[in-house]
Amino acid sequence: MNAPLLQDRLLPEADALAVTRPDRGQLEALEEEGIFILRETVAAFERPALLFSGGKDSCVVLHLAQKAFKLAGHSGTRLPFPLLHVDTGHNFPEVLAFRDAHVAALGERLIVAHLEDSIARGSVRLGSPGESRNGHQSVTLMEATLEHRFDVLIGGARRDEEKARAKERILSHRDAFGQWQPKEQRPELWTLFNTRLKPGEHMRAFPISNWTELDVWMYIDAERIPLPSLYLSHRREVVRKKGLLVPVTPLTPPLAGEVVEAVDVRFRTVGDITCTCPVESSPRRRRDLHRRQLRSLHAARRDILAARHDLLARPVNHRRPNIRPAQVHAHHIGFIRHLVCHALPSRESRVSITDGAGDVKGSWHSLCYNQCYE
Hints:
alpha/beta
């Protein structure tokens, strides 16, 4: 199920050429996997929908769906499912404008579920008017799922984003309350998916679950996928608070005594305005942005490779040499996952990891696996 990864791509010096000479084979393998998942999902369920927020991940999934179901050169064809967006009322205006323009250009059907309607119905209660609505949008999403009787929602979640998403399957089961239950998740061996559902349940499908953030950006650049302007450097008024750049908006106005300054920034995510901060950045082109992201990954990759090379260079006096957990640095979960699958020693040559007292805590494989999927 996983796209192949050559060990040469794990070396920092190879990444320096990734922007100017991208590995099309890797991107094509990921694209093929994503299209396969989309087609399998649509074939197995009756009423699918694609979650589209206008962010980079959902734009990539929408682009894959265009390739999976539309005929090249036939602009009149439409996807076999609608697009669904939960509007929290705290979205960036630039993202909403891009969403409407992009969907209109593609000629697709867009369903917008408003969190304000949930507040009016009383199903969502806010603690304060300026409270972040990220945690409340799941209620509106569940209401839209029940209203339109969707049995699968296609999303752009990736395993390398955070620990919670690292546990997700390609097809992730949700119970009648829309909750994710670890014991209810189905094994996905040999690319076989268990799509059976009881009344009220539904699935979430993640075609780009095995992609990393760098894969997403390289694919966007290779395919010329349009994105909201917030992802690239632009001038914006911000306030510096606790090391963060808080954008000045009607929802986040500056307080008395705070200094407003204009800074060149870009956003890495385009979520709720009240809890989304940009980073100071100067690249105004996608290719320059990729180079900066590559540099940020090199430090973490060097630590992991150094630990691995140290392990292989150690003299083996016993069948189970000891390695302390402090020597293993899991800074980049997606990269660790690739190491476990492709670059670490085989199970036959695995070694033990002990604590300071000498007690065996597990193998190198199990430690890295737990870092990825716990």
